[in-house]
């Protein structure tokens, strides 16, 4: 797809190239990318190379141009951050009761046994794993990764009132983490 867009790139404005790349390339990178949660960097690396090539194509830059400023100006999160973003949006839906029932069943809110200050922090309970999964810190299960990533978020993001506010704050948070 990138090759075909590159062939017609001299005929396009930067804005048109951006729209075309987002529609044909970035949308494919985002499709079901929460299934890639927990994969090692060597597995996500090829997808990041595609995103970098897409950013260079939008700005019509040579192959070895640095991409961090390009991603920042396009407001594109790196692939690893996009995967985490999508997983946390699913967790937000599950915690607020707006997600599918099977995902809501996977997520349990943390409720302490006695009154504690942590009861109002909107944390998720980490599942108790048995056997070999307990020792594996790279478990790819949604029920393991979503609570871990959710609890790592700042409290103002976890307690967002709406999906729109949550998504905006989460994207800003990830921009600070990944692109600064």
UniProtKB/TrEMBL annotation:
Protein name: Uncharacterized protein
Upper lineage: Eukaryota, Metazoa, Chordata, Craniata, Vertebrata
